[in-house]
Amino acid sequence: MIANYAAKPELSRGRRFPEPAPLYRSEFQRDRDRIIHSKAFRRLEYKTQVFVNHEGDLYRTRLTHSLEVAQVACAVARNMGLNEDLTEAIALAHDLGHTPFGHAGQDALNGCMKLFGGFEHNLQSLRVVDHLETSYAEFDGLNLTFETREGILKHCAVKNAAMLGDVGERFLTKTQPSLEAQIANLADEIAYNNHDIDDGIRSGLISIEQFCAVPLFCETYEEVIARYPKLEERRLIHEIVRRLIGKMVIDLTDTSTQMIQQSGVNSIDQVRQQSSPLIRYSSELLMQKNALKSFLYQNLYMHPTVYRMAWKAQKIISSLFTIYMQDIKLLPVKYQDFIKSMPNDETYKARVIADYIAGMTDRYAMKEYGQFHDLSRLH
């Protein structure tokens, strides 16, 4: 059973380029399938989450993260009678535009693009599915439905929204996306917060004892220890993390269901007309979640080891951008041709170079940097 206010594929606002309806699958299932078969999705395997890809084989990558986001998001959507296929498609596509080296790479590329409109990975993910994938005979991009594209674009500045047509409109009118898009947005945070706990402890950068300063973690740790007092650390961490995810999923489901009932919405159009999102945590869990997020920022993301990796990543991205801007003949021929198609347009040139760099995997970016510099000097 699907709720009245869920997104329904037969009522989709359609695709940028009209296509015949698919057989034996819905429009949103087709979106999901196209995303999974895209080149950008495959490259996520070698793009970092927090740790640089070569630092260890067991740390999260953008691919494993995207799969984990999809699992969490679909669980919430199923609980609430929403469209799982749309939720899954959005979750799987949300990081397609991410640079190599995680947020450090994004920050570096945004700095490089400051004079040319900036760089933001949500916009880049939309750019990937709308333009940069080139596999289909009749159009560029993946030609996804409006509803999936709407969900991919989680954040957008007003100046950019005005140029994006239908998917940018809600940022101008201050309205909301579908409930499925709202779920995928929060599932992203649930996944990376909890799995960064796992990676942070296994890396040896943060101890369980340090995490016990966070009330939500400490409460869950004590629950596990009370039930399994002699549990080895590897299993202990897993038991804590899975319970934390469970608590957040249950709270998000219960609170959001209550908010929907109170709002009285009975269709996706009424969902979109709300002044604020209906998918949300309780005030108590929101406070606890923010405390965990703050702890991770101070103790993991700003840890000297991670900071050094981020510094190296920024040097690689910035250096590559400068080199390509100075001499486009160092780019692959395809990108040279793109730039030559609009000569004397520095903004277009910079955007093409940003597309090329953003599409790199961690190891490819390091290989490219090594063509011009001695990698050992980064150590």
Can you walk through the features of this model?
With 379 residues, the protein is mainly alpha-helical. It folds into two domains: 25-305, Hypothetical protein af1432 (Orthogonal Bundle); 306-378, no CATH class. 61% of the residues lie in helices and 0% in strands. α12 crosses α13. The model has no long low-confidence stretch (mean pLDDT 94).
Radius of gyration: 22 Å
Described by strand count, sense and barrel closure, the largest sheet is:
none
Principal-axes shape call: globular
CATH superfamily of the largest domain: Hypothetical protein af1432
> The CATH topology of the largest domain is what?
Hypothetical protein af1432
Structural class: mainly alpha
The amount of beta strand, in percent, is: under 5%
Query: What's the total count of β strands?
Result: 0
Task: Encode the helix/strand succession as letters.
Answer: HHHHHHHHHHHHHHHHHHH
CATH class call of the largest domain? Mainly Alpha
Separate helix tally? 19
